[in-house]
Amino acid sequence: KEAALRLVKGEVLQTEESGYLEAEGREETRRFSQAQILEASTIGVAKKRFSFDLPFGPYHCGFTKNGQHLLTGGRKGQIALMHCDTMQIAAELQVKETIRTVQALHNHTMFAVAQKKYVYMYDGHGVEIHCIKDHRYPTHLDFLPYHYLLVAAGELADLNYRDISTGQEVSSHRTRLGPTRSMAQNPSNAVMHLGHSNGVVTMWTPSVKAPVVKVSCHSGHVTGLGVHGNYMVTAGAEGYWKIWDMRKYETLHSFKSFGHAVCDLDVSMTGVLAVGFGSHLQIWKDVFAQARPPKAYLTEEYPGKAVNSVCFRPYEDVCAVGHSGGFAGILVPGAGVANFDSFEANPFETKKQRQEREVHSLLEKLQPSSIMLDPDKIGSIDKKVVKEYLEEQEKKKKEEASTAKVKKKMRGKNKVGKRMKKKALKDGVDQRKKARQRLADEDGSDGEDGGDSEEESEGGGGGEDAPNGEAARGGGAGAKPAGVG
């Protein structure tokens, strides 16, 4: 609560606001070309647009968390990492192997590449540091920054979570739904959304072996996924792409592409949606509102090329597009957040700040078990479990009360005098017991000695005085007087 209060107080100093294109009269924003937008932009904004024509496509693009670096991978084996403002190449290599996708990790010093058979990890200079052979034939990669988890899905219908800070595999799930066609994460709860060939979208967490939610979205295989807040965007091979309300798991809007099915889509930090299909790119605004937008916000054409991937740059009004002839960046006014939190991700951080943030993020790393569909349950109390626990405790107390013996309580039983009296009584009982035992032992020993001597003396006298053997035996017994019987 205190952090939220400070954030609200600090909003007074945040004077920057994100703006959008506005058309006058009968104009439409979707008719505006990039050349017209560049004419009305400042020099600093105009520098953010770029275009590279390369023969190793189609290309897949991705940005680091703070948007400073762009990572691209060509299908024919080229990998490039470059700074977005200066366009200086930090790393470039040719692996001479099929590249399916690329993914930047916690910062630009490490990135992962899904190659033909395994997942490879490289440092910021393009040097290979790991080869993860447990992830075979990967097609999609993603990274959970608050958990330091690299998520991989591929052709073998598996989903793997690996902690990149320790290198250990956290969990591995079998989807049993065939090859994964698309994958995206929900930034609010870190739940992974997977699209499959039968048109079903499943949601996964590391601690649950089965999907926590399964939604049938399309009649064909799912080609694209995106998540923004409580809404999910899906695209199918039948040519439709839909907006879903995740609170009710119902369709909010449905759109139809033309010519080709949607191959990829992405949602910016402000809710602007980019949809790529065929040689066309459409930018949509306010698609998550209740009212269905009639037309696209912006459009861009790439004649003779096929769009392969789209990705918005964090905190900037730039969208990177990877196509069969290279990759490019277009200006999309209103796509970036105007005010950023430097403690979260600083686009202008220095080397020292990057090192400090990396240490803090490792110390504050969340456990994989904290990933759940409803993160508000963390720290809350489940009333049903509490009620069951209280009922169980009450039942146990009643059982103990019914079986317990009633003790007569006395006041002052632990006083010093009482304790001394108890001790004296106990000592007396022990002494009397020992005395009885000693007397019993002495009586037993005396009886044995007297019986032996008596038999000897009486046996000798009976031989002299007794007329026969019976008298001798009778005299020896000593139980009857002489002459009786």
Please specify the SSE layout and strand pairing.
Elements: H1 2-10, H2 34-39, H3 43-46, E1 50-53, E2 59-63, E3 69-74, E4 78-83, E5 89-94, E6 99-104, E7 110-115, E8 119-123, E9 128-132, E10 138-144, E11 149-154, E12 158-163, E13 169-174, E14 182-185, E15 192-195, E16 200-204, E17 213-216, E18 222-228, E19 231-236, E20 240-245, E21 250-256, E22 264-267, E23 273-277, E24 280-284, E25 298-301, E26 307-312, E27 318-323, E28 326-331, H4 351-363, H5 383-403, H6 416-465, H7 469-477
Antiparallel strand pairs: 1-28, 2-3, 3-4, 4-5, 6-7, 7-8, 8-9, 10-11, 11-12, 12-13, 14-15, 15-16, 16-17, 18-19, 19-20, 20-21, 22-23, 23-24, 24-25, 26-27, 27-28
Helix pairs in contact: 6-7
Shape, principal axes of CA atoms: elongated
Helix proportion of residues, in percent? 10-25%
Q: Provide the β-strand percentage band.
A: 25-35%
Major sheet strand order: 1-28-27-26
What's the Cα radius of gyration? Answer: 44 Å
Q: Structural class, from helix and strand content?
A: alpha+beta
The total of beta strands comes to: 28
Per DSSP, the total helix count is 7
Concise account of the structure shown:
By secondary structure, this protein is an alpha+beta fold. The chain has seven helices and 28 strands. The protein is elongated, with a radius of gyration of 44 Å.
Structure description:
The chain has 7 helices and 28 strands. The protein has helices at 2-10, 34-39, 43-46, 351-363, 383-403, 416-465, 469-477; strands spanning 50-53, 59-63, 69-74, 78-83, 89-94, 99-104, 110-115, 119-123, 128-132, 138-144, 149-154, 158-163, 169-174, 182-185, 192-195, 200-204, 213-216, 222-228, 231-236, 240-245, 250-256, 264-267, 273-277, 280-284, 298-301, 307-312, 318-323, 326-331. Strands 1-28-27-26 form a 4-stranded antiparallel β-sheet. Helix 6 runs antiparallel to helix 7 (469-477). The termini are far apart.
